[in-house]
Amino acid sequence: MNRLSIKYKGPLLGEITAPPDKSISHRAIMFSSLAEGQSIVRNFLQAEDPLRTLEAFRKMGIKIEYRTPNSEPRHTYNEIIIHGKGLYGLNAPKDTIDCGNSGTTMRLLSGILSAQAFSTSLTGDASLSSRPMKRVINPLTEMGAVIESANGFPPLRIRGGKLTPISYKSPVASAQVKSAIILAGLYCDGTTTVIEPGKSRDHTERMLKASGVDISVKDLDVSVRGVAALKPMEITVPGDLSSAAFFIVAGLIVPGSEIVIRNTGINPTRSGLIDVLNLMGADIKPENERLVSGEPVADLHVKHSRLKGMNIGGDLILRAIDEFPILCVAAAKAEGTTKITGAGELRVKESDRIASMAAELRKMGVKIEELEDGLIIEGQEDLSPAAAVSYGDHRIAMSMLIAGLTAKGETTVDNTDCVNTSFPGFMEILESLNQ
Ligand code: S3P
């Protein structure tokens, strides 16, 4: 599916289920591999990124089996069994671990590998190889790891060993950085603290607490005490708001649409997009709110709405960090101007998402001004069809496909294989709503 084309076919109608959460799927594999005994993970996201994490732990000697055949379509329900071998049970991998496109795999693994009694090499694809790693190298080096890199970029060579706890004031609000330090902190005698400039997603904290770890959260400070063992888990991964986001915005901007997105995670550290869209005038109703494995979840009822442009920054952007590309599409279809600031981190994601979205939406006739840390987007009634590209970035690809759905004529998006890093089955689900 390297080039996809899309055009308006009518309103989106019906019910879908959000695919499993990517962040939680990564963590479920990691934490249960380090636990003592057998864990059960249900509804694991079988997409390229979390599968990189799964393969990495298999390479380090962890037995991971599917109780349901993994030949089933990837977005159907599944159950996997992980035979954890304890915090010190990993074997040195025979060769380099390839993290593919996955920043979460590389950065969280760095924390774990920093405490192992062996050395490991981590590599990634072209996109991951241009993403900054000093943000994890610096604190982990302070704790005692020896990490070689290509001037702060992958590949990484990590020589683990005995670590000492630190109190680290992170210059960046990043769940990957926070989690890498917390994971290294599990291996320390004493308490490790991470202080963030803003609150990033808290799945690591929730899941480790459930695994018996003494972890405390006070505003922007997270402290963890070293432990002897993690308890195995039984977890059902909730749906991913970051994947549901494409359908939320599609439902809002395609005239006449009305859809329900079942089982969508609405963790408050992730739900900034819903808050922003509500402020822009969206009709999004969370129904049936509940907890799934300690994470808040709802069915989202979304109806076509007339959106209004607004100023967005600070905490709202941090809580919608992965939703920036699709938020730009919503802004392009809103009445008036939307100014997004405080989004500088978007420049170092799978692509420079500020530049990518500015370039691609301009092709559809949208007036956009690029700022160092955001965009000013003039909303308009009609988008022109365009020949868009993804920059190999899954969220740019899916955002441009949704934008194309509202244009008058056919839009193509090139280089769309990357959709499989987070959302295999995206096009089938979209088509199911557009019969
Ligand atoms: C993630 C954290 C975020 C997010 C990424 C997943 C995680 O990255 O963008 O898609 O699972 O911890 P940063 O930590 O770089 O903000």
Question: Helices, strands, pairings?
Answer:
Layout (H helix, E strand, L loop, with lengths): L2 E4 L6 E5 L4 H13 L1 E7 L5 H12 L3 E4 L12 E7 L11 E2 L4 H11 L5 E5 L2 H4 L4 H10 L2 E5 L2 E7 L7 E3 L5 H11 L5 E5 L7 H8 L4 E4 L2 E5 L8 E3 L4 H13 L4 E8 L6 H8 L3 E10 L2 E9 L7 E2 L1 H5 L5 H9 L4 E4 L12 H11 L3 E5 L2 E5 L8 E3 L4 H12 L5 E4 L11 H7 L3
Parallel strand pairs: 2-15, 3-14, 6-7, 10-11, 18-19, 22-23
Antiparallel strand pairs: 1-23, 3-5, 4-5, 7-9, 8-9, 11-13, 12-13, 15-17, 16-17, 19-21, 20-21
Helix pairs in contact: 1-2, 1-7, 3-6, 5-6, 8-11, 8-13, 11-12, 11-13
Give your account of this protein's structure:
By secondary structure, this protein is an alpha/beta fold. The chain folds into two domains: 213 residues, UDP-n-acetylglucosamine1-carboxyvinyl-transferase, Chain, CATH 3.65.10; 207 residues, UDP-n-acetylglucosamine1-carboxyvinyl-transferase, Chain (Alpha-beta prism), CATH 3.65.10. It contains 14 helices and 23 strands. The strands form six sheets. The protein has a four-stranded mixed beta sheet. A four-stranded mixed beta sheet has the order 4-5-3-14, with helices on one face. α13 links the parallel β22 and β23. α3 runs parallel beside α6 and α8 packs parallel to α13. The longest helix has 13 residues. It is globular, with a radius of gyration of 21 Å. The mean pLDDT is 96. Shikimate-3-phosphate binds next to α6.
